[in-house]
Specification:
Layout: E1 2-9, H1 13-27, E2 34-41, E3 46-53, H2 56-63, H3 66-79, E4 84-88, E5 91-95, E6 104-112, H4 115-132, E7 136-143, E8 148-155, H5 158-165, H6 171-183, E9 184-192, E10 196-199
Antiparallel strand pairs: 1-3, 1-4, 2-3, 2-10, 5-7, 6-8, 6-9, 7-8
Helix pairs in contact: 1-3, 4-6
Length: about 200
């Protein structure tokens, strides 16, 4: 899988959301190798778009299409000099349900000190997390150079996510979470209350 993560601040978040809708209708048809999109804005206008493709070549072919280039120019105008773009094939997916059913998405950005150990700990705790957090449908984590990462967590709803995060962990789970959080240092959270979710 190949992932593109695009983010920035929009003075008009609704304009960004309209661009997401426009991509679906004008660009998505004919986007060879397209897998899905997660996007939206926080309440203060920080916006993110995560596009998934089969591979880098498919994303490159899409980027060369006139429809995509015209859309991208409007995206640049919407986000201005705050626009940032990252991409990678180093992706880890954990699914517990239909991610497109999510009513709330939380994006976490930070640095990982031991990628393999962090993934192993997630997989070791997967069954316990599913039992404790039925509101968590799954996650997609993209790893970049310089040990940066972007992780997208998909929840059934914001209310259920807030209720879930307030649950008291067992001592064993709390210890595992503490160890995991020392490996995956989160520098920034983006809460997206109205996620735009599509799949091919």
């Amino acid at each position: 899988m190949f992932i593109q993560v695009i983010e920035g601040h929009a003075d008009d978040p609704q304009a960004f959301e309209r661009l997401l809708d426009r991509w679906d209708t004008e660009v998505r048809p004919g986007a060879d190798g397209y897998l899905g999109t997660t996007g939206g804005c926080t309440t203060n206008g920080d916006c993110v778009l995560v596009a998934r493709f089969n591979d880098r070549e498919a994303a490159k072919r899409n980027g060369q299409r006139p429809e995509q280039q015209a859309w991208w120019r409007d995206l640049e105008q919407c986000l201005g000099d705050t626009l940032q773009h990252h991409e990678t094939t180093d992706v880890h997916v954990m699914e517990g349900g239909d991610l497109d059913r999510a009513g709330f998405v939380q994006v976490m950005e930070g640095h990982v000190s031991d990628r393999q150990r962090a993934i192993a700990m997630e997989e070791e705790s997967d069954a316990d997390v599913r039992a404790m957090r039925p509101d968590l449908l799954g996650s997609v984590t993209a790893y970049f150079e310089s040990d940066d990462f972007t992780s997208i967590a998909y929840f059934t709803s914001e209310q259920e996510a807030r209720t879930g995060e307030s649950k008291e962990m067992s001592p064993e789970m709390a210890e595992k979470y503490e160890s995991w959080s020392t490996l995956m240092k989160v520098d920034r959270y983006l809460d997206v209350p109205r996620p735009h979710l599509t799949s091919a």
